[in-house]
Design brief:
Elements: H1 2-50, H2 53-59, E1 60-67, E2 73-75, H3 76-82, E3 93-104, E4 107-117, E5 124-135, E6 138-151
Parallel strand pairs: 1-6
Antiparallel strand pairs: 1-2, 3-4, 4-5, 5-6
């Protein structure tokens, strides 16, 4: 009877320690993934802003789609063929604010707000949702959606 009690106690103390270790490891992995996704998100916007086709190609999945502010849906091939020039005027600045990254295993959802400012024009803000997936150990954009929220 004592042996059974010892085995039960040993099992309980061993099993209760495991989930917290797993949870701690998962939190660290999610934190690392969050930092990686934030970096890729910045690189993606820079590629988009500059019209950098090589970077855009590298940072997106083969089946990437974007829904732009007009509601038009474009795939990767359309974006690459229609986007050889920079997307924004060189005098324009932009800020990325309210960025929120959520990790779901090999998928991440990023939401935020981009505000653009061009010389002699009012600033314009957009809400965005970007979906990233991990492919071959790299985070890539799989989908993006932009909604204009008005001039400021």
């Amino acid at each position: 009877m004592k042996m059974l009690l010892i085995l039960v106690l040993l099992t309980l103390t061993t099993s209760t320690g495991m989930p917290s270790q797993t949870k701690a490891n998962r939190s660290k992995q999610d934190g690392d993934a969050e930092a990686q996704v934030q970096l890729v998100n910045k690189e993606w916007f820079e590629a988009f802003r500059k019209g950098d086709a090589a970077a855009f190609d590298r940072l997106t999945t083969q089946d990437f789609v974007i829904t732009n502010v007009s509601g038009d849906v474009r795939n990767k091939k359309q974006m690459l063929s229609n986007n050889p020039a920079p997307r924004f005027d060189s005098t324009e600045t932009y800020s990325d604010e309210d960025v929120n990254v959520r990790i779901y295993g090999g998928m991440a959802i990023v939401t935020g707000r981009i505000t653009t400012k061009t010389l002699n024009k009012p600033s314009v803000s957009f809400r965005y949702t970007n979906v990233y997936v991990k492919q071959a150990e790299r985070w890539k954009a799989a989908a993006s959606q932009l909604t204009r929220i008005g001039a400021q």
